[in-house]
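Hypothesis: this fold can be encoded by more than one sequence.
Test: take the structure tokens below, design a sequence, compare later.
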């Protein structure tokens, strides 16, 4: 693990654990959900944004990138126009198919997804700046890990990053999820977003995909069970290997032609 990734993780976990750890203590002392207090909600959002904050700090302070370079990296479009279609495939794999298999209840009109996506760009989507845009990009440059190892390791570390949420009163994790099921969900999302980034090299696409998954999840509340979580992880790993196979088939002819 190179020094840039180590610094990224130190900043990321330091900001988040300080913010969310403090919220866990305060919400318990006040015996109230964090969302009841504006200042607590702001601190919560700071924790959510820590992967993006950490990535920008390391890009600028250690790697010497300017605002223009960072902006180009953040808003880089996918390599293939067809990659935008994968956004819908991923949302279907992660939310729609488990819904068909296991059912759910609908909380509001599906049209509200377009209102939720901008919110979840901030609360969730911008995490991709750090996990895929920074860490996974460095793995690609170093070329030392396999795609599968990258998805697995980042997914496990990503889950460790989420842990304080289970101690904060009022979070989705604290109210509705078990640690085990959430771990499988996080790994599943890591596999699909890793596959998406390897193909597209677009942080923007990963941000919008993550935000869309969260937005649809706000409308369709899935029946959370071990069977549902295992099915979701299986579907996402299958998607990962299909994308790896497609990428390999597209790369080999180019190599032979050269």
């Amino acid at each position: 693990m190179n020094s840039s990734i180590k610094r990224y993780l130190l900043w990321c976990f330091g900001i988040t654990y300080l913010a969310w750890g403090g919220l866990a203590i305060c919400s318990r002392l006040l015996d109230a959900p964090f969302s009841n207090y504006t200042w607590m909600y702001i601190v919560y959002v700071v924790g959510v944004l820590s992967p993006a904050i950490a990535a920008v700090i390391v890009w600028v302070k250690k790697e010497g990138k300017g605002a223009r370079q960072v902006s180009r990296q953040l808003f880089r479009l996918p390599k293939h126009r067809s990659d935008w279609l994968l956004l819908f495939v991923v949302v279907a794999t992660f939310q729609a198919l488990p819904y068909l298999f296991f059912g759910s209840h609908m909380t509001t009109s599906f049209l509200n997804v377009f209102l939720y996506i901008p919110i979840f760009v901030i609360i969730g989507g911008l995490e991709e700046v750090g996990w895929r845009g920074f860490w996974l990009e460095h793995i690609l440059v170093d070329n030392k890990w396999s795609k599968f190892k990258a998805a697995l390791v980042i997914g496990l570390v990503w889950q460790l990053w989420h842990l304080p949420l289970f101690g904060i009163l009022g979070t989705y994790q604290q109210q509705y999820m078990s640690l085990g099921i959430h771990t499988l969900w996080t790994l599943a999302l890591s596999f699909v977003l890793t596959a998406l980034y390897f193909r597209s090299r677009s942080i923007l696409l990963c941000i919008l995909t993550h935000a869309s998954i969260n937005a649809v999840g706000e409308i369709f509340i899935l029946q959370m069970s071990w069977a549902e979580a295992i099915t979701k992880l299986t579907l996402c790993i299958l998607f990962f290997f299909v994308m790896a196979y497609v990428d390999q088939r597209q790369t080999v002819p180019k190599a032979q032609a050269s």
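Residues 48 and 100 are 30 Å apart (CA to CA). The chain has twelve helices and two strands.
Hypothesis status: open.
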